[in-house]
Amino acid sequence: MRVTFTVNGRTQTADDVWEGESLLFVLRERLGLPGSKNACEQGECGSCTVRLDGVPVCSCLVAAGQAEGREVVTVEGLAGPDGRLSAVQQAFVDAGAVQCGFCTPGLLVAADELLERNPSPGDGDIREALSGNLCRCTGYEKILDAVRLAAARSGQGA
Amino acid sequence: MADDPAARPDLPGRAPTSLTQGIGGTTTGRVGESVLRPDGVLKTTGEFAYASDLWHEDMLWGHTLRSTTAHARIVSVDTAEALATPGVYAVLTYDDLPTDVRHYGLEIRDTPVLAHGKVRHHGEPVALVAADHPETARRAAARIRVEYEELPVVTDEDSALAPGAVLVHEDRDDHHVGHVGHPNIVHRQPIVRGDVAAAAARADVVVRGSYVFGMQDQAFLGPESGLAVPAEDGGVDLYVATQWLHSDLRQIAPVLGLPEKKVRMVLSGVGGAFGGREDLSMQIHGCLLALRTGKPVKIVYNRFESFFGHVHRHPARLWYEHGATRDGKLTHVRCRIVLDGGAYASSSPAVVGNAASLGVGPYAVDDVDLEALALYTNNPPCGAMRGFGAVQACFAYEAQMDKVAAELGMDPVEFRRRNAMEQGAVMPTGQVVDSPAPVAELLRRVKARPMPPERQWETTEGPDLRSLPGGLSNTTHGEGVVRGVGYAVGIKNVGFSEGFDDYSTARVRMEVVGGEPVVTVHTAMAEVGQGGVTVHAQIARSELGVSQVTIRPADTTVGSAGSTSASRQTYMTGGAVKNTCEAVREKVFELGRRRFGAYHPAWATAELLLEDGQVVTDAGEPLADIAAVLEDEVVDLELEFRHRPTQPFDLRTGQGDGHVQYSFAAHRAVVEVDTELGLVKVVELACAQDVGKAVNPLAVTGQIQGGTTQGLGMAVMEEITVDPVTARVRNPSFTDYLIPTILDTPAIPVDILELADHHAPYGLRGVGEAPTLSATPAVLAAIRQATGLPLNRVPVRPEHLTVSRPSAD
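Output (structure tokens, whole complex):
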């Protein structure tokens, strides 16, 4: 089947999509957007988190056909058009929130959505919003630092 | 979609990703600074190419058919229907292997590339398929008919060593078989020192305990993956996520029947490792399919397969006896540690060596009688995981230390302090600890920290459920919640031990580009997330006084860097980079003396340094620009670096200077337990660790927090459960194998000591593993204090904590 949807502001079409393929598979293997990660493919780890019409979802659990006509934002869509990192991306780099980095794309999409919804979250809010994203390297402390830093910088209009 | 072979998914086509993962941006900063990762930006934009992101034109997808049973004779394998599936290019079984070398292994080559005659564990690879779509490959594999004849399973010490027990390996000829006493024992290491019987007679209290440690999984997030591309010379190029390129190479090439130079390996992006990538996974399989089909073949495991695709941490049963005098001095330790190695040896022998030699912990005890052994069973193979043999013992000896302290009516930290080893202490192996061992100080520091506030869940708007046991399940608002506090400390070796020739290689090139001196560092070190690439640039800048340093991608065109394990890479490959930089620097000085020596006596008399692009004297006087010294010369050196040699442990007494360096960390855990439901909330898990020298404090802190969290997971949730009757894995998924989320993980304050080890580069001490040891027993001690239960097994589950049921095992 053919699937057409908007990815990071651009209309994209994938042909010959098998009905059983996930949105994650189509993004990674047919549209050349491997930033969303395939750590569990069963909706437990959050590494494949994208926004579907603004809502964070595990793209491994969304059938590609369900994305038809909808708007998808992936980690590749977070940076500015000039390639400049978004506040939350820069904060992850600066705070040491990235080690192996496999969880990072999903966490960034989830954190970006949190900060859009709640520009100055408390620690409990951050933990709750990111509780669907597993990280095995960092122990999460630097991830909390990064989200706090992004919130603080955005609050300063940086 | 119906299972119709003709209705197969179409070949995906997409823009290629780069096969060679560049390191990314440039950084600044020297040794001791919190330099940011050079690959950090690529990892936040999604552009960093992990092994599972690789793509090649005309690429096929490989799939592995794995055994559905733990121990069985293979009666027949019928691949005809799979081969006839449209889109399938190859189906391989044992009979298709190209040479007589059909086994591999880290130390003992006992692991079949594909099962032959029998399978020895659930999930053992039996056949391979290559097809043009991953789903086609999966379906074709499902059409391979394997007829099994079930065999009895060996699952524990009793079934392994019973008279007439089934032998997991019938024809062992490895170098351990002569001393182990039974063919179902991989390796056995006793350690005997002093006179235990006499010492025990002096004991005022004797405490004995049996402990059970569950099977932990590394659960790295990036699945096993790689891309094998057949080359025109008949060889193969393999892009793969691994921990040690050259170890892989040594195991892969003979199976393929190729000389090592025709198997060119390149490290692709690695999504975590923690020991789980030390053994081969898809490497040989991918190469076999690529060479058979003449096409590039990519294999990516999904999470289910990943649980079968790598070894796990050895589950263990441990028995301890500690004696102490009334004034709180340990008299002796007796101990027996039985590790389950599963069906293949992997690194079990070295795990046994660690469990035995570190089995007493960081305490000074003159009289010990220990034994550790690893079994062959039909359970999943076990091998390396962060902490490597020291983790299981630490859980048990720290529980014992608390019990002895309780018997003596002594504070558990004070009891540990009275027995804490110091520099100059003698290990049970007879090895003298010849660098700082601040065991008591680490404990003092975590104990001195302010406590998190009582009833920390209370806010002005009522209880914050997220801070309570049970969390958003809304199981309590504080009723039945009891706080507990626990302490633990551990000891881990750094580097490869027991006489292993452990070395790393670094190639460093210095030249002038655009009027500036620039340095290129090339090693085969596997960057798995730990930050070695950051550190190498810091070292090159520090040693060579330049700002521009490029780190080349890791591959096998440079010598081995050894494994990214054993907390060794900053010490070893960092040490190799430092060592080669020093040699490069000497070449620069030689050139400078030749060119400019006549103009200034300091060239001959002063201690020279490279700083800010200049040759300077140790008094800070500039002598020449590096660019002027080098002109068109290129200094390019590749050198090996070794740590000081170690010795094997005596097979009877366990004596020997077996380890390179020791690493120490201590934890204080504060937990809150809903004693009615058995739910645990870890409120804080503070760590103090001696790192010798924090080469990159930000990265060091991240290692300590990450290691601590894996220890926390082991304490309260992580366990691969294996059916004791069938030896089949019950929970190969992130739905059923739980690792800590950000809500499960507490604040982890870190206190870093820097007491130099003068044998090591910059005085540094390997960091990655020690915090994984003591986190688990600290949490257990805290839960014991909150509940009053003995809790002799990890992980602790809610049913172990509720009043109505006794503690497990």
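Chain B has a mean pLDDT of 96.
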